[in-house]
């Protein structure tokens, strides 16, 4: 009997309350990229191997199965469950490159792209390169035996594994890189090892089975367990470690792996080739497959894929006018020798010259150009899926043929689309060089006919692929989608081997049950997502999870996709009239106030990673507008009308807060914040700014209008920071050295960029009109440029008035107009650098880096994983846990560095950054001023 109540009670004590039974978190954290919707009964957030071992202990004690979740980007349902979902916090992202860069050790929480960033300066990368590598974590990549676009079979997770560290269901840790761990395991688990070796003997003694396994793993295959390990290796530890590759979290917990590094060739070239139809393209792929030394990847995208992609920004400049039925092949070739690369490209051109393209072929050696081509390919799944009909579900499949069968396989697949009613809506794309195809269908499963069409297509497709000797799942993992068809593909003998593997490692079926091995032959068509419509851009979300990496509240409350899923579930429950649904809806509405709204920084950094450009911040912003009280609206109107008075009030509050600011009072302020939502005190709290803002007419020929933000008019640097001058004094100093006059708008004490009025559209529009009048006068009708000194305010003002005035963020103005007029003597120290989120959206990261490199000969260290610090203006004071959580990895990163000073372009962000790192962060203007003098 499963005892979830007992599990919860024990887990609550063991894991400091990090076990959740409320419906909001169970539902939202149960969301993943596949077409399935399961709600776990409990959700855990675990930090260490010792906690995983304790979770296994509780699982055995209370007979409650566990399911481990990484990034949740898997597509076959392997990270869904209705049992206990185990999520991992940010403590699992350690990595270490060995001395000769031949391998890299990675924690299961490392994002694949981050591993490649660490290896790129060494000319290396990891082998697996799934399209989700920017979001997928190593635990999922390894557990799915991910391959991808360039790695094929040779460089997938299985074939690049050097060692692995796993925790078995009985709590035992096996680290195959540690001789003592291996020796201990061989003694303690002799029975398990003997069973594994008996399976190997069973295969070795069956010649027919041996030949089947050898043949099927010449192409991509993730259907069932990696039973080729029983043939490829004789050492039991090697066998066991490779069985964990592609095991989809059903045999134990993968804590870390050591992967061989592969060459990341210095020079690359790509081509876009267009053909009249997919069968002609398949013929070309057969030719290209003969040049595996010259071609690292050949990706195919059918007409439906291209049509879906063409509606997104910039794509029309890449793709020509596509005609009905046309297909594109994206080819990549690479080499460490530029001359040899050009020879490879010529060889490829010559090989396909007899196969005319329907549009002029595009060849490029410019990575900045073909990187955009790859963005189309990598975003095909979410992009195409977002074009689904309202109310329909997104089903993605992943099959593989031998190259010789690719054309016939495509033809048969198209016949099945026609037979089952998907001819006009299905799309095909994939890794053509490997014979690996993906397809997407979008049936409305609430309609019985379409549900049966989907069910029959999956069955017929499985039979068809098996008849070709292909793989029903090539790289997405078996999951629940293909679990009923493992025996169909492999036959009874091989399927029996798969079942025995599961029994050996998980005799009580407590580790991710119903994944890979399932007795439920209909499980592939159960619990399919049927998302409710919530309107606007949000209906395009396919819950892929690409957005989560940038979100400051991810794993604190909700990520962007979880917020959209929450809104959808509230909509669904709102359409039901039963008592249980109404009760759940009330719970979600109550929780949404904090989880959906208050804890969202509204930084919109999710939009930067979303393949279809969804700005999930609008969910929270809409809530704030709708729920704005009459009192708050009136307060906003009064603030606009009496802004100088409001600002003086803020300065008075700062003075009072600084008088009270001590360790004990800060602790009390956090307690009060939890109880009554009062603002917290910060160690690096700014002082009151008393600097008088007056025009500085030095008699120079050039002038600039200085729109100093209200925040910086209120703030002076904290007394512990390196430079205690207000930023206005610093900018004036720089302008004087650069021979530029400074003009303050006449009503400088009474102006605001308007960001503070975001929740009050009418007031915001009145404020915009006021700013236009003030700046028109200050700039002499646009004669002078305007500079603003806070990144968030710059973004707001530029967005609002860029068609009226020449407006610059202070960092951009410093680089373009100030630094060129100064004599700079750079320091030798390494420094930290952070570009605040709104400035990233303005494209100012390179500007900030250029400024920093002008000012120092030392390293400029950037923690690229901190897309947004979560301070979010006032939220750093009223929702402090958001900033603290968002800078968790930032804090660890700089703690392990030799940096003791940092620079940014946002005074509010700098409070949180200083708190996290325990050293000074100030605007980069301070650095430039400290290293410069006037040119003679």
Give descriptors for this structure.
alpha/beta, seven-stranded antiparallel β-sheet, 29 strands, 43% helix, 14% strand
Task: Give the topology.
Elements: H1 4-14, E1 19-20, H2 23-29, E2 42-46, H3 49-62, E3 66-69, E4 84-88, E5 95-97, E6 103-107, H4 112-119, E7 124-126, H5 138-143, E8 161-168, E9 173-175, H6 179-188, H7 190-204, H8 207-216, H9 229-232, H10 236-243, E10 252-263, E11 267-275, H11 278-288, E12 297-301, H12 303-309, E13 327-335, H13 338-351, E14 362-364, H14 367-378, H15 380-385, E15 395-400, H16 406-419, E16 427-431, E17 436-441, H17 448-468, H18 486-490, H19 492-505, H20 560-574, H21 579-598, H22 605-609, H23 617-626, H24 630-641, H25 643-660, H26 663-676, E18 687-688, E19 702-707, H27 710-714, E20 715-716, H28 727-737, E21 740-743, H29 761-778, E22 786-788, H30 791-801, E23 807-809, H31 810-818, E24 822-824, E25 831-833, H32 837-841, H33 845-855, E26 860-861, H34 875-878, H35 880-886, H36 888-895, E27 901-904, H37 907-917, E28 920-923, H38 924-930, E29 932-934
Parallel strand pairs: 2-4, 3-4, 19-21, 19-22, 22-23, 25-26, 25-27, 27-28
Antiparallel strand pairs: 1-2, 5-6, 6-10, 7-10, 8-9, 8-10, 11-13, 11-14, 12-13, 12-16, 15-17, 16-17, 18-20, 24-29
